[in-house]
Specification:
Elements: E1 19-28, E2 30-32, H1 36-46, E3 56-57, E4 63-65, E5 68-70, E6 76-82, H2 83-90, E7 96-99, E8 102-113, E9 120-125, H3 136-150, E10 157-166, E11 169-178, H4 183-192
Antiparallel strand pairs: 1-6, 1-8, 2-5, 3-6, 4-5, 7-8, 9-11, 10-11
Length: 208
Amino acid sequence: MDKSAALPFLTPRVDSEPWYTLTWRVDGDRVRADHGYSLYGALVDALPILKTVDWQMGTINGAYAHGWLSLTPESTMAVRAPLSIATRLSQLDGHHLRVGRGTVRIHFVEGAPLEPHPDLTARIVIFKRHHGDIGEYQFGVSMGRALERHGIQRWPDIGKRMTLRVRDVAVVGYEVTFSNLLPDHSLWLQRHGLGSKRKMGAGVFCHG
């Protein structure tokens, strides 16, 4: 079955290629809490073009315990991508992904175009110029430079220190929340994110 034929939201536009957020229900047993790198690898294995194109990935949610996430009936993940890639991703409905030591199955739920939201949060933002541990002050300096460079005129709240494990290295970043964003800035942050590792769940801004 051609999945794209059943997805009216994926109607091409001739003016420009819009971006969409695709939401998936995730079934399985459990995955590591820090599974961004493994999930990225599993998606690239399923759709190799993801290694060379622009897209973003949100991690799987679930019930946390001792470094693991047990999947629940509400467990989901989200992928943000341009129209052409979103169309191809939607065809992975029912696909099994090997995430670390576990296997999950993804079920396509919906796709929606990006819309402005005044309040956005990224679970972790990482700036690639930093190596090893990083203090909040140093992180804030890098954040200020990034915001100035991109013309974002709103200072975020910098929250908890977080890590993203890439192979055997724990890369350090911080949770970041913006409030009262202008619509254009909100759309820009959702489309581009901040920092590095956005294909592994870092620097991806979501609302709610």
